[in-house]
Write a structure and sequence with these properties.
The chain has 420 residues and is mainly alpha-helical. It contains 18 helices and no strands. It has helices spanning 3-23, 30-41, 56-75, 79-85, 87-110, 117-126, 136-139, 146-178, 183-217, 223-243, 248-262, 267-293, 295-298, 303-313, 315-324, 332-340, 346-358, 364-400. α6 (117-126) crosses α18 and α14 (303-313) runs parallel beside α18 (364-400). The longest helix is centred in the last third of the chain and has 37 residues, at 364-400.
């Protein structure tokens, strides 16, 4: 990235920061603004900044972003509380998410996209994770009952890490189906990624939590260094897994889950560093998405991809989520609300780029374009509707009075480090 690009990007970050509080009450979200900003300054429009995912700096930035997001997403979710109080996200993750992937696979096969079984399953798995940051006003709105906003918050925090092993598995199977050569190598590669990654995450996360607890209690750990520690643990888990042949992203997620649930009492300050840095990295990733990735969809010209994207954001999510919530006692507006707010964002973008970069997969261009179009539509649709629908839904639930949605639950930090 040249000096001019750095100046333009830095100026954009500063200007956004100056009006960020004002924008919190509008329908304009950070991902929306930075995607458009990237599109305008990139080669597709003004050509002021040379931003390309193949550049080492940008590739590394995206990699660190995904590591930090996976780690902090897992760390901020108290799994013990989830098991006791949060039945809704468990339903959505354990029932809804598999149904979403199955529905997405069937749609990928039914539409004339030229995808085989494993390619369609890979596309569905890449688009299964949600990104609550795209509809931040929903998970942070005091109007929305805590039980409902936390259901979306917890689902978003866990589904990217849960989806990643399936993404790797389907990518391996799709690569195997491409050629008769190297079948055993690809299967072995996939198994190592899925098994050694979690092992490395646990091996790093557990002792790190123990050491930080002991150092803090002994007064050895300065508060100013608590933040950088979480970044170090996340990167160590990633690098450790990659060194032994596992998947570093899975390792980061598992390390975050282990680490966060062992040092739960000290996580608020740790999140302040990780979430602040992670939030900036996330916005820069959306800028790169707009500048270097989104333009690739413009020349594709396949209307079936657009249809798949629309279905992915609507029926392919909303129907499985509705099925997963049967018997929960929730009102129909709530089921629709939970089904609609499943934005696709950072994880889907980066999963697609990293997986398609490593594996030779038939239909890779179609998969990438479908992911890009779906995320772009989600940034726009969920960004514009988050605030007004959250306000409408919150007022509707207030009129309902004592309903299942109003059940008191323990709240957890959102992606941007705020307690709702």
């Amino acid at each position: 990235m040249d000096t001019q690009a750095i100046v333009i990007v830095a100026a954009g970050v500063i200007l956004f920061g100056l009006v960020s509080r004002r924008l919190e009450t509008s329908v304009l979200t950070g991902p929306m603004i930075f995607t458009v900003f990237g599109l305008v300054i990139g080669g597709a429009v003004l050509g002021l900044a040379d931003l390309n995912f193949d550049q080492g700096f940008i590739h590394g930035l995206a990699e660190i972003t995904l590591v930090l997001v996976l780690f902090s997403d897992a760390a901020r979710i108290d799994l013990r509380v989830v098991r006791k109080e949060h039945d809704l996200p468990l339903r959505m993750l354990l029932i809804g998410m598999p149904l979403i992937i199955i529905a997405g696979t069937l749609a990928g096969l039914a539409l004339p996209l030229g995808l085989g079984l494993w390619e369609a399953a890979l596309l569905a798995a890449i688009l299964a994770p949600t990104d609550a940051a795209l509809g931040q006003s929903v998970v942070a709105s005091p109007r929305v009952p805590a039980r409902i906003r936390q259901a979306l918050n917890i689902e978003s925090g866990l589904n990217d890490g849960i989806a990643l092993p399936l993404v790797l598995l389907f990518a391996s199977l799709a690569s195997v189906s491409l050629t008769a050569e190297g079948h055993g190598n690809w299967v072995l590669f996939g198994l190592m990624q899925i098994t050694l990654g979690p092992l490395a995450g646990a091996v790093v996360g557990l002792p790190a939590a123990w050491l930080i607890d002991r150092a803090a209690r002994a007064g050895w750990l300065a508060e100013s260094y608590e933040g950088p520690v979480i970044l170090g643990v996340a990167l160590l888990s990633f690098a450790g897994a990659e060194t032994i042949g596992g998947n570093g992203f899975i390792a980061a997620f598992v390390a975050g889950a282990v680490f966060g649930n062992q040092v739960r009492g000290r996580c608020r300050f740790l999140f302040e560093f990780a979430e602040a840095e992670g939030h900036l990295l996330t916005l820069l990733t959306f800028l790169i998405f707009g500048a270097a990735i989104l333009p690739q969809a413009f020349d594709y010209g396949e209307p079936m991809v657009l249809l798949y994207a629309v279905l992915s954001l609507t029926a392919l999510r909303m129907i499985p989520i509705a099925i997963s919530l049967l018997g929960s006692g929730l009102r129909l507006p709530t089921i629709g609300f939970l089904g609609w707010f499943g934005p696709r964002g950072l994880a889907s973008i980066l999963f697609a780029l990293f997986i398609l970069e490593e594996a030779e997969i038939s239909g890779a261009e179609t998969i990438l374009v479908a992911v890009v179009v779906t995320v772009a539509l989600s940034i726009l649709a969920h960004g514009l509707t988050a605030a007004p629908i959250a306000k409408w839904y919150g007022n509707a639930m207030k009129r309902e009075g004592g309903c299942p949605e109003a059940m008191t639950v323990t709240e957890m930090p959102t992606r941007v480090g705020k307690m709702p």
